[in-house]
Amino acid sequence: xxxxxxxxxxxxxxxxxxxxVYNVGFQKCEPAYQWGPGVRDHYLIHHVLSGxxxxxxxxxxxxxxxxxxxxxxxxxxxxxxxxxxxxxxxxWVGFNGSDATAILNATxxxxxxxxIPTGPISDTIKEHLLGIYDARGNGFMExxxxxxxxxxxxxxxxxxxxxxxxxxxxxxxxxxxxxxxSANYSFPITVEDIAHYVxxxxxxxxxxxxxxxxxxxxxxxxxxRIRQSCHLLEHSSLSINAIANSVGFDNGLYFSxxxxxxKGMPPREYRKKNLS
Length: 276
Description:
Elements: E1 5-10, E2 20-28, E3 34-38, E4 43-50, E5 52-56, E6 61-65, E7 69-72, E8 78-82, E9 89-96, H1 100-104, E10 115-116, H2 122-134, H3 140-159, H4 165-184, H5 191-198, H6 202-213, H7 217-235, H8 240-246, H9 252-263, H10 267-273
Helix pairs in contact: 2-3, 4-5, 4-6, 8-9
């Protein structure tokens, strides 16, 4: 009888905001082994190493074989299960972060078709996913290495994407803007500053963000600053005003109001509920 196995790793620290590996592993499934129906709170890429199985989304059911890759979207009800006769073996990586959506929108994955069929990069995808697993660990260095290897994996999907040029251009603008925000969010930067750095007009940048992320640059910048403030509230003893200044707000009251609007509670209450 063929031996079944599962090797997986879950990262208990999800501190990298731009992109972080949540879990990674590989598994040889039993016949008809099933996950779901259910939802995930993060993105999850599965790459089929051998055998076959089925992936059900709200829109369709896909029959998958060795070399195929499928993407699970956050908060989307899905089911996937192994074939009864030739159960699949797959490798996977789960991840999320502010860069995730923009990067994936520059690949051939989409909610309407979350599957990339077997092709010339199938073996390379396998190597990349197993490489992320090899770098596993809960230390900050391991988290950075896993994230670095995840970026390389996602870049592979981007490089071989067949998406149209207009979408790729919008994705490029958004990614450049996100990089600028990540490096400068603690300063009083404006949407005009971001657009100037990207090299487009404010209206063009707005359209690019709406196309790729379905939110405006200002909404993204504000949400990014609030996510950073959450980390400081959880892992530092800085005062609320100091945290506000640290994430680019020059007014502590406005910071508290914005925080409450996005998180459903004031900063002090959030700190009490999430002390390290």
